[in-house]
Structure formats: structure tokens, C-alpha cells
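Bug #77: duplicate submission created two jobs. Keeping one. Sequence:
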Amino acid sequence: MKAWIGAAFAAALALPVWAEVAPMGDDGLYKEPWMRDTFKDLREDLAEANDEGRRLVLFVEQRGCIYCHKMHEEVFSLPDVAAFIEENFFVVQINLHGDTEITDFDGESLSEKDAARKWRVLFTPNIIFLPEEVSEDSTAIEAAVAVMPGAFAKGTTLDMFTWVAEKRYELDNGEDFQRYHARRIQERDNGKFD
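Kept job's structure:
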């Protein structure tokens, strides 16, 4: 009997432990503690991100999105993922169907839903990574260094955030994101890192 209880206890400890899912706001979107509540003037947000030594990233989400829920429940709630994002990124959340006013880099002011339409965002989650400098005639989607459309597991998500944080898109080494991600998968499989 004691062996069975010990085995059950050991099995319970081996199960993954998820952190709590972020609370949901009045707009029906999850509110991670590392998300910024700004006036959504992307030029100001970029300047503030740069002042903090972080990269500006836009999270486009929508109420009732099962894939957004999956990302918040299974990926963004993980302490190492949350810590990496908080340390390296300035995250502004955009509601795919929202009416809050946004000022794009080109100076145009429009609602969140019109900005999403302008940026050709059709699905959520959609994560738009911005460079440190954006010309005043560019839109967010034109300036993006990478876009992560859809829900992905921890490894892919961390690899994309790391690839952007390390500015690997600038490197002329022939290692685009897919090659970088494949190499990181192999390194994880070989026990180099988690």
C-alpha cells in the first residue's frame, strides 16, 4: 500500500505544472502582467520600448479565440516564457474587433479593427514584431521584421521571440527562422538546453 501511495505521489509530481492563466479584461482578452496599457500611438510606444531597451511587439487577439486561450494557458503562463517576454519585449495588445483608437507609424489614426484590416490581419493570435526604427511613412505591417500568425507550442514561440530579440533577421548567415528553429529543436533534443 505504501509503495502505491509513493508511486502515485511521484507520478503527480511528474505532471506539468501550469501557472494560472492571466485574468480576462472587459474586452474578453487575456491581460498578461507584462502587457502594456498605452494610448496605442505606435510611434510613442516604439520610443518607450527603445528607451527601456526592449522590442515593440503587437499582439492582435479577439474575444472567444480558442487559439489565443491556448497560447495564454499553455505558453504565456509558463514562468520562463513570461520572464523572457517581459525582459525583452514591450507588448501592446490589439483587439481584432476593437474600437480603441490607434495611431499607426504613418500617422494615420484609426480604430483597432480598422488597423487590423489595414494590416491584413485575418486570424488570431497574430504577433507582429517591430524593429527599433520605423520610417514615418511605414505601417506596422510594412515595418515588421517578423509576424507569428497562429498558436504555437513553447519551443516555437520561444525560438521566434529569441530570433527577434537577437536580431537574427539581420544576419547574413543563411539561417532564416526555419533553419534557426530546426537547429534549436535539434539542440533541445540533444539536451543542450530546455
